[in-house]
Amino acid sequence: MSASATITRSSRSSQVGLIFIAVAAAALLSVPAWASNDAMRLLIDIFLYAALACLWNFLAGYAGLVSVGQQAYVGLGGYGLFALTTKAGLPPLLCVPLVGLVAAVASIPIAMLLFRLRGAYFAIGSWVVAEVFRLSAILITPLGGGSGMSLPARIAQSIGQAPHDRYVSVYLTTLGLLLAILIGIFLVLRSRTGLALTAIRDNELSARSSGIDVDRTKLIVYVVTAFGTAMIGALIFLQRLRISPDAGFSVNDWTALVIFMVVIGGVGSFEGPILGALVYFFLRETMSNLGPIYLIVLGAVAIGVMLIEPLGLWGYLRARFGMQFVPLQLRVVDRAASAAPKFEETRPTA
Hints:
CATH architecture: Orthogonal Bundle
Strand content: under 5%
Number of helices: 15
Radius of gyration: 21 Å
CATH class: Mainly Alpha
Number of domains: 1
CATH topology: ABC transporter involved in vitamin B12 uptake, BtuC
Number of strands: 4
Strand order of the largest sheet: 1-4
Largest sheet: 2 strands, antiparallel
């Protein structure tokens, strides 16, 4: 390496990106002061799906654990919230981190079982676990059995007497959870664990031969993802005020759509899932009244992106324009060169 060269994570686009993120966060925090209930409800949905997409990407895009059973933890979080509020009398917002802890503990033996499987078998196994959760919920009659249950009005009013107050409470909690998830993933990816995850994603055999404890690293990611996913599930059904086994453990709502967002945004990128969530909600809000045509468009968009740019929309922007909103990638910069530095892409295997 020449004397004029240096290794850095920062770039002009990441500096601009961090300023944009700070301004966006401040603007989103001000939303309850001027937005309507409908606007806050839409933003809550966007936050929840963006958080699910980021966690799934953290699991599959970095750790290589392609799961189609994350709805197990969404439903577990929702049912845990309903059980703790209606049976134990705990405040709803206090139950959100509690159900996350329950899901994290429950995910450890599940991970021990699933990690015996590889590739497609792991994906199928995760879906089977979610189905076991759904069928178990049907058998729990105190929580409504197959028909589900609604959250009593007194519990909903405990977070706000007026509907607007309840929306504000759920909105701020959801935004805080999303920001915490993004900051947590960012810090992990900047750490030694992040380097280990990148090595595992690119070549697990080489990672093992380099001394990386692959199983331990994957277990940490799986448990952390279950923790966050369950909290998101609790907030989803706290907003909806009703839960049933089919709604809580829906593979279409909580896994298929999330995978769509990650795929079109960019698997294995920090910004990709957020971009994918925004694209999905744009399509949903503008075309959902078209019926089957809307679903055809979603499928066409997913197939088109996978064929034209497997790295997703953000992968294209990063390769074409060198865009990087958060300083994650290490780059060698020659200060004597007049040309702007370019990124060297590594295509994810997940």
